[in-house]
Amino acid sequence: MSAYFITGTDTDAGKTLVASGLLARARNAGLTTLGLKPVASGCETTPQGLRNADALALQAFSAPAMDYATINPHAYAPAIAPHLAAERAGDRLTLAGLVETLAPSLALPRDLILVEGAGGWRVPLNDREDLAGLAERLALPVILVVGLKLGAINHARLSAEAIRADGLTLAGWVANGIDADMAEQAANLACLRRHLPEPCLGVVPPLGKRSPQALAMAAAAHLRLPGEANNALT
After folding, report:
1. Residues 6 or more apart from 24 whose CB is under 8 A from it?
2. Which residue in 56, 58, 99, 131 has the most C-beta neighbors within 10 A?
3. Which residues are CB-neighbours of 213 under 8 A, at least 6 positions away?
4. 209 catalytic per annotation
5. Tens digit of pLDDT for each residue in 145-166?
6. Cis amide leading into 199 (omega within 30)
7. Cα–Cα distance between 143 and 4 in angstroms, integer?
C-alpha cells in the first residue's frame, strides 16, 4: 500500500482536482484506491447529512466503494477555516483524535490511499496544532499542489521549504492551471522546476467547467503516480 498526504500552496490551489485525478489514474490502471478528507468545512446540508463537494469527489474514485463518514469524518457547514468551523460546532479537533479516526482506513488493503488536507500547509487545527502535523504523525510523504497564478513561485518554494523543515518527504509536486490568463506561464514553470528538485507529477491545464467526475478523468491524463515513468503520461 502507498499512502500520501495532499497539500496545496493555498486554498483553491486544486488539491481535490489533483487528488481525484490521481485516484482516477490509479483506478484506470486497475489499482484499488481510497481518498480521505479528514476535515472539511463549507459543507452543504443534504437529506443524508452534511456533505462536502471535495469529499464526494474523492469518494467517487475510491474503489472498492467506501461510506461517506469514513471519507470525511469531520464535516462542518461554515465555509471558514476548519478550526473555527469546528469551534462553532462545539468540537475540538486534535491530531491524536484524527490519527485514531484514520487508523482503520489507513490499514485497509488499498494500492493507493490519499489523505487530503485543508487549505495550505500551515492551516491550524486548534490553538497549538496544525493540520500539517497529521502528515508527520502518520509519516506520510507529501504531494504539493501548486496553483499556477501570480505568486505561485513564492508560495511553492515556501511550502516546500516548510514541508522539508518538518522532516517530511516531498514525494512530488503538481502544477495546476487555475489562471488561464497567467502571464509567462512557461517561464514560471521553468522556474518552479529549477527550485523544486522533487519529481513533477504533472502539469494540469485549465479544464473549464465540468462535473467533478469529468474533471478528475480529464486531470488524470495529465498526471502520473509517484514512481510512474514520465513517458507513461498520456
Report:
1. 61, 216, 217, 219, 220
2. 58
3. 57, 60, 61
4. no
5. 999 998 999 999 999 999 999 9
6. no
7. 7
Q: Report which of 198, 214, 206 is spatially closest to residue 147, judged by C-alpha positions.
A: 206
Query: How far is Cα 115 from Cα 4, in angstroms, rounded to an integer?
Result: 6
Residue 117's identity, in one-letter code, is G
Euclidean distance between CA atoms 106 and 86, whole angstroms: 23
- Residues counted in the chain: 234
Span 189-217, pLDDT tens digits: 999 999 999 999 999 999 988 899 999 99
pTM: 0.95
Residues in a beta bridge with 30: none
3-class secondary structure, 130: strand
Among residues 15, 37, 149, 209, the one annotated as catalytic is 37
The three cell numbers locating residue 70: 469514513
CB 159 within 8 A of CB 165: no
- Helical H runs in 177-234? 185-195, 212-220
